[in-house]
Amino acid sequence: MRVAIIGGGAAGMSAASRIKAIRPDWIVSVFEKTNFVSHAPCGIPFYVSGFFEHFDELCTYDANFFRSERNIDVHTNSEVIDISENSLVVEEMGKEREYEWDKLLFATGAKPKRLAVQNEDLEGIIYVEDILAAEKIKRLALKSEKIVIVGSGYIGVEMADAVSKLGKKVTVIEIAERPLPEYDAEIAAILKSEMEKYVNLRLSEKVVAFEGKDRVERVVTDKTEYECDFVIVAIGVRPNVDLAKKIVKLGKSGAIRTNRKLETNKEGIYAAGDCAETFNIVTEKPDWIHLATPANKMGYVAGVNIAGFELEYPGAVKCQLTSFHDLEIGKVGLSEYEAIKEGYKVVSAFVTSKSSAKYFQNGLIHLKVVADQNGKLLGVQAAGNGVGMRIYGATSLLYKKANVRDLFFTDFPYYPPVSRVWDPLVIAARNLFRKLGIP
Ligand SMILES: Cc1cc2nc3c(=O)[nH]c(=O)nc-3n(C[C@H](O)[C@H](O)[C@H](O)COP(=O)(O)OP(=O)(O)OC[C@H]3O[C@@H](n4cnc5c(N)ncnc54)[C@H](O)[C@@H]3O)c2cc1C
């Protein structure tokens, strides 16, 4: 049996490893267009800020590890340029070669959205595309003074954190009225104050053009213009389905439509990771959840099913953590604004509390819990101190479709340096009791 996997990132290498573990005698070939496999783009901002020195630490394992230890036929610098029902065409070492397959996995990830404004191809405008961009950004950042970042989703926020820590003059331009626009205004306001200490944050402002002779020198917006040495664009991503759309169906989100076994509409063809649509456990609808933990698990599940066993992927709750300087931020499930857009009638509670016992100077946590009118938990967001463990706790509850009572009665552990007897999550649940008529 010959299995072809397009893309050697988290999903592709998880699937390849699983298939070889179950079916050591099958030929599993991974085609990866860059020189890297099993790379972790999540580490890019930390490499740029100088948290670690060596670029190759962004890869969990290198291609030779997979070849020698797992017997996977890894082709790096090999871009799949065409695909048909039983073969694919690869450009490798300057030549086109055709490979036949019996089963296929799309694991092609996501691509940055383009700005589509005048002069967007000028030298010095960088998209956070892959880990190669990390090297470029770091090199440019070290010799630059003025850096403009377009977009303040979590990648824009993390890149702003990284380059401002290098002591650069940073301007962040965001079209929405708040940074991290998926979050509610109460949480985003806390991030806004923190960002304004370190960067020039421009909200409700739209980039309309770039200017410069040989390379970018200015970013022009609908309000003014900013001098710069280089620009990082992080305005979101789209599923990379350029090849897949030729032979399989896409879902409403534009990502590849899959079922719980991660099969596409064509027998023997699977999709996993950022290129694939999955299931949102909170909304109980298909959704495109382009994050690293779902990508790894989708790869694992696709691998098991490709190998001939049965395993279902239950979906994801869209949990995320990020930070800006000393502020931790996190979210799981839906914000109030997203829940209303989804058609829910919502109740919410926003609390500000110490995150530890009063005699520790750990600072505050600001936390918002959103539920529907029947008390079903829809989402939790937080900013401040001790965010990670609250989001971890809330993630487990949302995964199990818990309600506000479950949030109140979960006995989260109390230890004075890190938590409280009445944890901020529990206080928020108690506030919601009132709104839901629970005594
Ligand atoms: C800066 C940054 C920070 C992030 N931080 C986080 C975080 O903190 N937490 C989190 O959960 N997620 C984070 N993410 C998202 C996370 O990295 C992705 O969800 C994850 O990498 C998806 O894995 P994947 O295997 O689906 O895709 P990818 O890792 O993108 O892998 C896809 C691979 O396919 C290859 N490929 C594409 N087309 C072809 C072709 N035609 N032929 C051959 N190869 C091809 C690509 O080169 C790539 O290697 C971050 C992303 C970025 C960019």
Concise overview:
This protein is of the alpha/beta class and 439 residues long. It has eleven helices and 25 strands.
Task: Describe the protein's topology.
Blueprint: E1 2-6, H1 10-22, E2 27-31, H2 44-48, H3 63-70, E3 73-75, E4 78-83, E5 87-92, E6 95-100, E7 103-106, E8 110-112, E9 125-127, H4 131-143, E10 146-150, H5 154-165, E11 169-173, H6 185-198, E12 200-202, E13 207-211, E14 218-221, E15 225-227, E16 230-233, E17 237-239, E18 269-271, E19 278-280, E20 285-287, H7 292-306, E21 320-324, E22 327-333, H8 336-341, E23 346-354, E24 364-372, E25 377-384, H9 387-399, H10 404-409, H11 424-436
Parallel strand pairs: 1-2, 1-7, 2-3, 7-18, 9-16, 10-11, 10-16, 11-12
Antiparallel strand pairs: 4-5, 5-6, 8-17, 13-14, 14-15, 19-20, 21-22, 22-25, 23-24, 24-25
Helix pairs in contact: 1-7
The structure holds flavin-adenine dinucleotide (FAD).
